[in-house]
Design brief:
A hairpin with a 2-residue loop joins strand 4 and strand 5. It contains 20 helices and 13 strands. The radius of gyration is 22 Å and the shape is globular. With 442 residues, the chain is α+β, with helices and mostly antiparallel strands. Keywords: Signal, Transport. It comes from Nocardioides abyssi.
């Protein structure tokens, strides 16, 4: 499929008669017109790639409907809260929504998403969609959302720092090796360890990398099996303790996030860092050469390296985190056919190409990585690393109760300075069990 073709040339037009019928009642807020006879589809987006998403919305609008952007809060938790409140009230104006993959099961289980069916479902999740991304949009054997862009974390580092430490970054490295290398050379290890979702991303990836899980049998809902108290849980806690006990922690570890990790790569003094972070990092540094917080010059940018997510246990393949955005169609939308048609357009290969090239938000479709635009915009080995990591990475627990699971883990594992391999996994298991059983409050 040619990712360079305009979005408009691929768009299927909704039936004007159906849209007119659906919008006959003034009570259907989701079909409010824009003055030219078209209905309006509201698309609630997260703040990433706003300008590009607005352009895609315009290109995917038709003679029958206009897609209008509505901005959600920055925090994934706040995004979930705002959308959940609207959909719990059966809001007909919440037509399209950008969802963090971890919230898809909850929304689908509540009946808030309109499933894609038949040929449309096959189109949304065909063989071109990377396995990690495809997994995020299924629930109880239905396709309940469309993968828009996929995210993963890789290990970013200063080549000069790794070389000084004697680390061969062409081979898999462990968390222990990374921490020891940074500590020995006066460098830092950048992670996300504030009390928020990204901290659970780190914990979950390390547990999966050691062959374990936070919970299993999630199809049982609240009766899911809590498995975080395990050898894998202890291995993840041991990594956190090792980092805390070293001199390689970044300033403000307990409040560190994706943004605060970035500035440590190119400090005014010192050799820089190893950092686990999302795919946006490359475009961020490329666009900040010579600016505060970015590479001081082009040579410094060339010193930026990347490798697969670190192993928790030496010899066991790591499980890079899976993230991104899936597009859901609100179940109370007056014209679901039109909204799903729009969802197909805004998740097309052409749209994914625009997001990747402009904003560093990587495709959920494998073919887009081979497009001339991406091959020009990114180093080929980085594209291959992204694609492989998304295809073989590990999702967070797929549960309708994920928000409770995540909050319970955060409650016990934060602050990272208090994590103890001998007690933290068991304490978090006990608390999570109590939360799911309704015997403890978050």
């Amino acid at each position: 499929m040619d990712a360079r073709r305009p979005l408009r040339s691929r768009r299927r037009r909704a039936s004007a008669g159906l849209v007119s019928l659906a919008c006959a009642s003034a009570l259907l807020a989701g079909c409010s017109g824009d003055g030219d006879g078209r209905s309006t589809l509201n698309w609630y987006i997260n703040p990433d790639g706003q300008a590009t998403l607005a352009k895609i919305a315009e290109e995917c609008s038709t003679d029958d409907y206009k897609i209008e952007i509505q901005l959600l809060p920055t925090s994934a938790t706040d995004q979930r809260t705002q959308l959940a409140r609207r959909l719990a009230a059966k809001d007909s104006s919440t037509n399209l929504m950008s969802l963090d993959p971890v919230f898809v099961p909850e929304f689908a289980n509540a009946g808030w998403l309109a499933p894609f069916e038949g040929d449309l479902a096959d189109e949304v999740v065909d063989d071109d969609v990377l396995a990690g991304a495809a997994e995020t949009v299924s629930w109880e054997d239905e396709v309940v959302a469309a993968p828009q862009w996929a995210n993963t974390q890789v290990l970013w580092f200063r080549k000069s720092l790794a070389e000084a430490a004697g680390l061969d970054m062409s081979k898999p490295v462990t968390w222990d090796q990374v921490i020891e290398a940074a500590d020995a050379e006066g460098g830092k290890v950048g992670v996300q360890a504030d009390r928020y979702e990204a901290y659970v991303v780190w914990i979950n990836a390390m547990i999966q990398g050691a062959g374990g899980t936070i919970v299993e049998k999630t199809e049982a809902g609240r009766d899911a099996e809590v498995t975080i108290d395990s050898d894998a849980g202890e291995a993840a806690a041991a990594v956190i303790k090792k980092l805390v006990d070293s001199d390689a922690t970044i300033p403000g570890l307990s409040t560190s996030n994706e943004g605060s990790s970035l500035g440590v790569m190119y400090p005014d003094e010192g050799p820089g860092e190893f950092m686990t972070n999302w795919t946006f990092v490359y475009k961020n540094y490329e666009s900040t050469v010579g600016k505060p917080g970015g590479p001081p010059d082009e040579e410094a940018l060339k010193d930026l390296g990347w490798a697969r997510y670190p192993q928790t246990v030496e010899g066991e393949e790591s499980k890079p985190p899976i993230g991104g955005i899936d597009i859901g169609v609100g179940a109370f939308t007056p014209d679901i056919d039109a909204a799903q048609e729009a969802a197909v357009c805004i998740t097309s290969p052409e749209a994914q190409t625009q997001l990747a090239v402009t904003d560093g938000l990587m495709p959920s479709r494998g073919s887009v990585y081979d497009s001339p635009e991406l091959q020009e915009a990114y180093p080929p080995d980085l594209l291959e690393l992204y694609r492989d990591s998304i295809d073989s990475g590990g999702p967070r627990p797929k549960s309708a109760y994920y928000s409770q699971i995540s909050s319970a883990v955060q409650s016990v594992w934060h602050s990272p300075t208090g994590v103890d391999p001998d007690s933290t996994p068991q304490e978090s298991a006990d608390f999570l069990r109590a939360v799911l059983d309704g015997k403890a409050l978050l």
